[in-house]
Amino acid sequence: MLLFFISMSISKAQTNYTESEVPFFEVPNPLTTFKGETISTNTAWEKSRRPELHAFFRENVYGRVPENLKIDSYNILEQDHNALNGKAKRTQVELTFTKNNKELSFTILLYLPKHVKNTAVFLGYNFYGNHTITEDESVIISTAWTDNNKEFGIENNTLTAASRGKRTNRWAIDKIIDAGYGLATIYYGEVDPDKNDFSDGIHHLLYGENQNQPKPDEWGSIAAWAWGLSKAMDYFETNPEIEATKVIAFGHSRLGKAALWAGANDQRFAGVISNNSGCGGAAMSKRKYGETLAVINQRFPHWFCTNFKQYNNNEEALVVDQHQLLALIAPRPLYVASAEEDRWADPRGEFLSAKYASSVYELYGKKGIGDMEMPSTNLPIHNTVAYHIRTGKHDVTDYDWEQYIKWANIHLR
């Protein structure tokens, strides 16, 4: 076990934002199996350690997908080869899934640069509909359930044109296209609405007889969103304009958790970006800093599988921690990003996860995070395991995208 020396534990009822009050804990070693065997080669990692870690996260944290559900059909809803002032091609494609006389569809909004063939793509979910990431009036407005938001003009859980372009600040589309990358996004509520109700998302298509919610080891919403990213990959493999071997899973906050789990499950993703993913994402659970397992499972009981709740106020019982989730992405490039004012997401815990996952990358001759000390603000590390902490709050900014593009140019081109 790797030792993390800190002084004292905290009250279960309080949110800890003091580093000296992080409890002492042992960091589970990614290179030691549950039986105590040492892993010293990437072959041994892939044969024994990686499978047991993946199985633990699947059965006790995110939940397993009951069966493989393939795309029933995909339909091009709209297409324009002269989008974004003439420099991009826009496609809106609907993927449909059917099972047990039930149906679910979600729409991918895809922008590809006109000057690039076989384009590498950033793929990520958005929070309030595809039409919110751009002022482009041709982008279709989703009819799926949406959380109300007065600032965005969303009432009665329904999206309207009032919210068009409200999240352009989070999607540096011009920078992405100008750099020669494509951007694909999906409204996450079309895959599974973000509420504690498993009757109106993808889950209910796969229920058995008399079942109305997932079993204790079956998928919560994060695993469902991760599943949706993999289904988008299935479509990309049919699209000759996309270089499907160079698709990067991106996500912010809860959707950063989904991107990490998608990357761990589906090795077709060429890289993964976790932006401020925090508890249940990149941040180490055993630190109990900022958001904790008890808090996240109480506020969002649908995100993880039911089995995960046994670790509420009981993080010390976990035989894994989130750095081992990050290690499951090895040897593919991984970027973990934090924000200085986002203490809820525990920036240091996110950094340490990247650091402790690096030992697995080293088995492949890849460079990870070598220092225990966090880098200075706005001074990124662009190794295969990359990290930055920027000024500002819980958000996605142009600075973040500038770093992701630079890093992708180094490791994915």
UniProtKB/TrEMBL annotation:
Show the GO MF annotations: carboxylic ester hydrolase activity
Residue ranges of the 4-O-methyl-glucuronoyl methylesterase-like domain? 198-365
User: What InterPro entries does the database record attribute to this sequence?
Assistant: AB_hydrolase_fold, GCE-like_dom
| Pfam families for this protein | GCE_fung
Provide this UniProt record's keywords sorted from A to Z.
Answer: Hydrolase, Serine esterase, Signal
Q: What is this protein called?
A: Acetylxylan esterase
Q: Which organism is it from?
A: Arenibacter certesii
Q: What is the lineage of its organism?
A: Bacteria, Pseudomonadati, Bacteroidota, Flavobacteriia, Flavobacteriales
